[in-house]
Amino acid sequence: MGLWRRLLPGRGMVLWGDSGAAVPPGRSGIWAARRQFSGAESDPLKQRRAQIMSRGLPKQKPIEGVKQVIVVASGKGGVGKSTTAVNLALALAANDSTKTIGLLDADVYGPSIPKMMNLKGNPELSQNNLMRPLLNYGIACMSMGFLVEETAPVVWRGLLVMSAVEKLLRQVDWGLLDYLVIDMPPGTGDVQLSISQNIPISGAVIVSTPQDIALMDAHKGAEMFRKVHVPVLGLIQNMSVFQCPKCKHETPIFGADGARKLARTLNLDVLGDIPLHLSIREASDTGQPIVFSQPESDEAKAYLRVAVEVVRRLPPPPE
After folding, report:
1. Is 204 exposed, middle or buried (0-12, 13-18, 19+ CB in 10 A)?
2. Is residue 142 classed as helix, strand or coil in its secondary structure?
3. CA distances, 61 to each of 65, 66, 153, 159 (Å)
4. Based on CB atoms within 10 Å of each CB, which residue in 143, 191, 207, 260 is the most buried?
């Protein structure tokens, strides 16, 4: 190793390195000296930093009885994420009747699963004091909407919201599920981060319209899951095209193939296209999702195809 010498000629400090070149006095000289050592110490420092940062992270713990968790997310609200989550859960069950499916509404501020799944009432408690999901269309459902009045706003700060999410994850008796579909709130905030860090997630599905504004936030959502090591299964392009009910002319109201362009940028696949259709909206508003109420329609078949692509990309379930 080379010898570093310090000289203090009055006010300044001069450093000589291995090369014998002097570093000018001042703060820049200190940083230059540090950079000389950074190469040799970079790996140990990185490992130490990772250990320190991981201390505060929660340990991932599987949800009892649940084999695989699929999260349905979007960077922006209003892109049809909850409608997609509901119909995806129903499509998973329709494609394979041997599978048991659960649906968790993690949107504490704006739960919409109760209305879409035509469910009301409070969950019963098991002997272990766990909440039992409400059941409809063969899907076990849990939502904050079952615990508060339908028109009551949830005016909570972050700590209360995180406590509620923890209860929805850990204090529900799901029984035995092959797939638990989680309808995530929009954005990339505390709830998304907490769920991603607390439970093992088999895969994330990103929902977006082809509109540039929605795609910007979908990009952020996909990158967030990658940062927390959650595999992104692909993108769903929702409201891809509007078909006139009279003349059958198709119009890409929100733009054409925007999700496909984003998928190429992220090196992901597009799991399917869901059209903007009146029947999907009407079925959701009446609590009879399109996959259940009109299984032979083109719109329902689009969800069924998406479900096939999702299952195909999932890792093998744990033994």
Report:
1. buried
2. strand
3. 12, 11, 31, 20
4. 207
Answer whether 241's CB lies under 8 Å from 199's CB.
Answer: no
What secondary structure does DSSP assign to 33-81, as a single string? HHHHHHHHHHHHHHHHHHHHHHTTSPPP-PPTTEEEEEEEE-SSSSSSH
**Rg, the chain, Cα only:** 26
What DSSP state is assigned to residue 172?
A: B
Q: Is 277 helix (H, G, I), strand (E, B) or coil?
A: coil
Helix (H) / strand (E) containing 260: helix 258-266
Query: Taking all residues of the chain, what is their mean pLDDT, rounded to a whole number?
Result: 82
β-pair type (270-276, 139-143): unpaired
User: Which is it for strands 22-23 and 14-16: parallel, antiparallel or unpaired?
Assistant: antiparallel
> pLDDT, tens digit, for every residue of 132-143?
999 999 999 999
| Closest listed residue to residue 141, CA positions, set 166, 175, 191, 185 | 175
List C-alpha distances in Å: 122 to 116, 135, 149: 16, 12, 10
Q: Which two tokens stand for residue 71?
A: 């999260």
d(CA 220, CA 215): 9
Q: pLDDT digit string (tens) for 199-226? A: 999 999 999 888 888 889 889 889 999 9
Locate 106 and state its tokens: 């993690």
Quickly count: other Cβ atoms within 10 Å of residue 262's Cβ.
Answer: 23
Residue (of 56, 315, 62, 318) closest to 169 by Cα position: 62
The pLDDT tens digits of the residues spanning 306-317 come to 999 999 999 988
Contact 270, 234 (CB under 8 A): yes
Query: Please, what is the end-to-end C-alpha distance for the chain in angstroms?
Result: 53
Residue with tokens 């296209």: 273
Identify the CA nearest to 285 among candidates 74, 116, 117: 116
Alpha-carbon gap, residue 280 to 302, rounded angstroms: 11
Decide: pTM greater than 0.85: no
